[in-house]
Amino acid sequence: MTVAADYKNDIRPNWCPGCGHYGVQAAITDALTELNIAPEQMALISGIGCSSRIGGYFYTYGSHTTHGRALPYAQGVKLANDDLTVLVAGGDGDAYAIGVGHTVHAIKRNVNITYIVMDNHVYGLTKGQTSPRSDIGFVTKTSPKGSFETPLPICETAIASGATFVAQSYMINRAELVDLIKKGIQHDGFSFINVFSPCVTYNKRNSYDWFKEHLTSLADVDGYDSSDRSLAMATLHKYDGLLTGLVYHEDNRGSFEEAMASVNGAHAQALVKTVEKPSAELFASLCQEFK
Amino acid sequence: MEKRKDFIWKMGGQQGEGIESCGEIMATILAKEGYSLYSQRLFASRIKGGHTTFGLRIALEPIMTVGESVDFLVALDQETVDKHGDEVRHGGYIICDSKVKPDFSKFDGKPIHCLALPISETALKQGTLLMRNIVSLGMSVALLGFEKAPFRDAIAAKFQKKSQEIVDKNLQAFEDGYALVLEQKEQLGAEPDTLPVPEKKDQMFLLGNEAIALGAIAAGSRFMASYPITPASEVMEYMIKKMDKIDATVEQTEDEIASCMTAMGAAYAGVRAFTCTSGPGLSLMAESLSMASMAEIPVVVIDVQRSGPSTGMATKVEQSDINAACHNAHGDYANIVISPTSIEECFYEIQKAFNLAERYQCPVIFMPDLQQGLNKQSVPSFDLNRVPIERGKLVKEADLPALERPHYFKRFELTEDGISPRTIPGMKNGLFLSTGLEHNEEGKPAEAPSMHVSQTDKRFRKLETVADYYDPFLNNADHDACDVLLIGIASSRGALEEAKVRLEADGVKVNHLQLRLIKPFPTKQLLPFYTKAKKVVICEQNATEQLTDMFRIHMPDKDKIASCLKYDGNPFTASYVVNAVKEVL
Fold first, then answer.
1. How many CB atoms are closer than 10 A to CB A129?
2. Alpha helix (H) ranges present in chain A?
3. Does the beta-carbon distance from B254 to A105 stay under 8 Å?
4. CA A278 to CA B519: how far, in whole Å?
5. Which of A191, B137, B532, B560 has the lowest tally of Cβ within 10 angstroms?
6. ipTM of predicted assembly, 2 dp
7. Contact call for A275 and B220, based on CB within 8 A
């Protein structure tokens, strides 16, 4: 059995005191512990930003990549070694600005990995600029008179992109978040989890109090059914996206890996297990077509 | 009279008229018969319409270029005669549709035989103009004096899937074309020379892009992530077509950034992974490659070079990505850049690219050019085992000593040769952190000035032995000292080899090296040839002397360096090189 300490290394996070990301880190640790995932069987892939430093704060395999490109990298890791649990983590700038194309395609492609976005509506590592999730009127260094672009409705975007697992949580809701991360890892396909994680330094607007006041748990929405796509869209719209819980899931689609296997046959084992030359017979049959 | 050793046959018309498929039939059969072939497709970057030609050099001995003077030009339309008539040699033949009017005054007074025949009418006898290509094939076979039978078999095989009626009609069109030429042979004035039938050879006839894909498979790679682009798509298309057979995963990503990052993720995870693109894609991959250099990820990126900058001329050849391949990524970028000198080498050298990537733990850019990627050549059948798989310092899981948390495996250990032992995710006791940040030996972020210096030095120190490990050029130098040292890369090899022969005939002593290793630059290995040459002429297909500049940076006696540039989108010819060399002498 793994215990929380198994995932701890000796690196002190560069996050500010009070940063929401500590809570996300703790929730991920709980989920990994409860699922009993061995550190060496885990790859935590991240992009660039405050939250993307998280890959370095776990005692697992971790890769801290380029800004916005963690998802394609992570899909490569998973497709090369299906035995690994692949978790991707980053922030809203990484996921919804520079990397949004990859986000939409990763959702559509449905490779069996889990994506946790720490959404604080602001750029922190570059010291306070507006993000695609910033509220209208939010004052930052690059929106001194208030942000005037409409924030990206991210759960709706995910569902519209063909997501098979969409969840949203608030890092303060520890039990809910741990449960969603576990469900996401166990989901067969791409699981997308947007987590509100306040930035105490550069976002005084969307503060802990603000989230507490504005968020509604889906558990409190009468008759909510997370397998009903239209209802999910309508509810998100009604609550301006400020919901927490399992928003939508579709369990029968099958992952990218399964879809590919249905066309080309399944791999007998993870690709990484056999890096060798093709058999002489196979190679001869390939060459024969050019003779 | 000296017997001919080769012929050049060229057919032209509009895209969509079956020019290429006609050429394919011709080439496939002649390859089986044992002829050595080099084909060249010229086409516009559009789906249908637009001028196109298919050139085929048919020889008894192996050839490396499509050559220059055409012996037989088959023209389905006026444009073909207008554009290519002047390529026909003295005593060559033009076979065209009777509606086409060659303007002989433009041909420089060369005595050319012309056969204007009712190609369209003959095709229409079978009910469709679409069969003009098969009529032309029949005509060509008659004129070149080949046996009919294998061509009949090939036509039957090609159309068998459609219906027997279509097979019969095509066979009739072929026979009618054949007969047309036989009836008119006296009109020709002179009987065309024919080639003797060669001995059968164990050979293949394929695109450079197909040779690359086969090479990647032979290297044990079963993972590719790529994005379509001319002239590189065939590599991905082949890999996807064979995915089930070779038990591979091939992903068409959303863009080239994703291709490169996906391949990098897979390489980090321990498979041999690659992506394939052309110039615009290589530009998009720049930031990712910089990370691959920093995080020491063994990824292979193929850049089938086309004409640039920007979208440039997507269907034309250039060798203008040399600077980009070496330097497009930011920072002190440690990578390896190699280039194959033939279609056969596309198969063998790509395997070495994978070995280099894993041995030196860095991105390897493999750079053929469009001329190699998109043209077919007959090559000796490939040897699966000539290039063994070498995985460098990849550690076996069982050999790893116990690791105690919070320590990590020293994946970036500062070793004497600069190459560190490598583990991959999943290995117990192999845990390390991977990051694009500067890092210490365990991969933990580290900004201490001394660590950045040590790690930077390590990343470059490891490349110091590349030129000793990897054969840096094709050696076609048979003189101790020479008047001219000719240097080329990628597809120019054939033109340079033939230029050497012609110059030697004129009494010029020529050595020729076709460069394979571009970065790190093989100064030490080049020096013996370089110092004993009076002049060094660097032939490259770009306007900005990209390869020549590398010689100026890395070699002494810069005064003896001259460049022979070509950037009109068409490949080098021997005459072009000969003229350039004579100007330098």
1. 17
2. 21-35, 70-80, 92-93, 100-109, 154-160, 174-186, 208-214, 229-238, 256-264, 280-288
3. yes
4. 30
5. B532
6. 0.98
7. yes
> Amino acid identity, residue B102?
P
Nearest to B389 among A8, A105, A277 (CB): A277
> Is B217 in Cβ contact with A286 (below 8 Å)?
yes
Phi, psi of B154 (to 5 degrees): -65, -40
Q: Please state, in angstroms and rounded to a whole number, the distance separating the CA atoms of residues A283 and A279.
A: 6
Partner residue facing A102 (CB), from B254, B436, B437:
B254
Count of A-B CB contacts under 8 Å: 201
| B442 token code pair | 């365990």
Residue type for position B506? D
Contact between B538 and B544 (Cβ < 8 Å): no
From CA A161, how far away is CA B369, in angstroms rounded? 38
Classified as helix, coil or strand, A278 is: coil
Q: Confidence class of residue B419 from pLDDT cuts 50, 70 and 90?
A: very high
Domains along the sequence of chain A with CATH: 4-266 (3.40.50.970)
Residue B458 pLDDT > 50:
yes
Q: Is A60–B225 a contact, with Cβ atoms under 8 angstroms apart?
A: no
Contacts of B31 in chain A (CB under 8 A): 291
Q: What is the pLDDT of residue B102?
A: 81
Name the residue of chain A whose CA is nearest to B33's CA. A291
pLDDT grade, residue B1 (50/70/90)? very low
Distance, CA of A48 to CA of B353 (rounded, Å): 30
State the pTM of this model.
0.96
Phi, psi for B152 (deg, rounded to 5): -60, -45
Residues of B in contact with A8 (CB under 8 A): 405-406
Low-confidence ranges of chain A (pLDDT < 50): none
Percent of chain A with pLDDT over 70: 100
Residue numbers in A near B430 (CB within 8 A): 40
Q: Of B292, B270, B297, which is closest to residue B423 (Cα–Cα)?
A: B270
Nearest chain B alpha carbon to A46: B435
- Cβ atoms of residues A84 and B426 within 8 Å: yes
How close, in Å, is residue B249 to chain A by CA atoms? 7
In order of their start, the domains of chain B are: 6-188 (3.40.920.10), 205-380 (3.40.50.970), 393-470 (no CATH), 472-584 (3.40.50.920)
User: Furthest-apart CA pair in chain B: how many Å?
Assistant: 90
The two tokens of residue A235 are 């509810």
- Residue B107 scores a pLDDT above 80: no
- Token representation of residue B27: 């080439």
Check pLDDT > 60 for residue B2.
Answer: no
Q: What is the pLDDT of residues A43-68, one digit of tens each?
A: 999 999 999 999 999 999 999 999 99
3-state secondary structure B172-199: HHHHHHHHHHHHHHHHHCCCCCCCCCCC
Q: What is the mean pLDDT of residues B534-562?
A: 98
Residues of A in contact with B425 (CB under 8 A): 40, 43, 61, 77, 81, 84
Report chain A residues whose CB lies below 8 A from the CB of B261: 65-66, 69, 72-73, 76
Contact A63 B430 (CB under 8 A): no
Q: What is the dihedral of CA B43, B49, B55, B56, to 10 degrees?
A: 110
- Chain segment B343-395, per-residue pLDDT in tens: 999 999 999 999 999 999 999 999 999 999 999 999 999 999 999 999 999 99
In A, minimum Cα distance to B223 occurs at A80
Q: What distance in Å separates the CA atoms of residue B40 and residue B375, rounded to the nearest whole number?
A: 5
3-state secondary structure of B210: helix
Q: Which among A41, A75, A81 has the least Cβ separation from residue B270?
A: A81
Q: How many Å apart are CA A175 and CA A181, to the nearest integer? A: 10
